[in-house]
Design brief:
3 helices; elongated; 2 domains; Lipocalin; 270 residues; single chain; 8-stranded antiparallel beta barrel; mainly beta
């Protein structure tokens, strides 16, 4: 009859410890056994949408910045805000809030993005990617992207792209798009075009406000949309202190009566 002997191996305790550690870590790692994946909180560049059997590629400016209970970003042209509720790392519930209503070049993408980024969205998270999936299987594919630093108010060339009146935001008419531009120099002088006539003025920056002095302008007769934009901007710049807000490359100037503008940073003024 065979006799079996118990053989003591020096490697035994180490093996048991390794197995214990492996079991303890089971279910807590990310892809390919890596460290746990981080939260969805952060800045994301939108790459594409899939909906209705089609893939829509995003413009470069489409993005979402997700915080613990809010989200904001750009559908590609129009900006938006939303309330969000995180369900761990498995789902995100989005309640859309305010958004601008400008007429933009790729309204098909903007409309689809606004429709998909709403309600309960399942989360598929990778180390540098985030995919949000709707109940019908449509997806928003995003990649991680550091947030653009805020452009400086001074020595930046700003192009007016929308006008604000209280809660209403409207895009600059197509015929006047890109024609209203201004910059504030380091010495406190401001200049640019109002949509038709050129102007210059003294600009005083005091914390979060800027006040334009009397405007000196050229004297061309300006009609149509460009003239309407010019009259609106002339009244705004002459209305007293304007509250400034800069988010990335977008500037908002708001008067006490709720009127204002948004402008995009295009290039540094020389």
């Amino acid at each position: 009859m065979r006799t079996f002997r118990h053989v003591h191996s020096p490697a035994g305790p180490a093996l048991v410890l390794a197995l214990a550690l492996a079991l303890a870590g089971c279910g807590q790692s990310g892809e390919n056994g890596s460290a746990p994946l981080p939260s969805v909180v952060g800045s994301w560049a939108v790459a594409s949408l899939t909906t209705g059997g089609r893939t829509l590629h995003a413009p470069e400016s489409a993005r979402v910045d997700i915080a613990q209970d809010t989200a904001k970003g750009s559908y590609g042209c129009n900006g938006f805000q939303a309330a969000v509720v995180l369900d761990g790392t498995s789902a995100l519930t989005v309640t859309p809030g305010m958004s601008t209503t400008m007429a933009c070049p790729d309204m098909e993408f903007e409309t689809a993005f606004a429709t998909l980024f709403s309600g309960r969205l399942a989360i598929d998270r990778g180390p540098d990617r985030l995919t949000l999936k709707t109940a019908d299987g449509s997806t928003i594919a995003m990649t991680s992207q550091p947030r653009d630093p805020d452009a400086p108010l001074i020595v930046t060339d700003w192009t007016v792209d929308s006008l604000i009146s209280g809660e209403s935001v409207s895009s600059v008419p197509a015929e006047a798009a890109g024609k209203a531009r201004f910059a504030i120099a380091a010495d406190g002088t401001a200049g640019g075009t109002l949509g038709c006539n050129r102007f210059s003025a003294k600009a005083t920056v005091d914390g979060p406000t800027v006040t334009f002095g009397p405007l000196t302008t050229t004297r061309m007769a300006c009609e149509g949309p460009a003239g309407e934009v010019e009259r609106t901007l002339t009244a705004l710049f002459g209305s007293g202190p304007l509250t400034t807000k800069i988010d990335g490359r977008t500037l908002t100037l708001t008067a006490p009566d709720g009127k204002g503008l948004t402008a995009k940073a295009s290039s540094a003024a020389e």
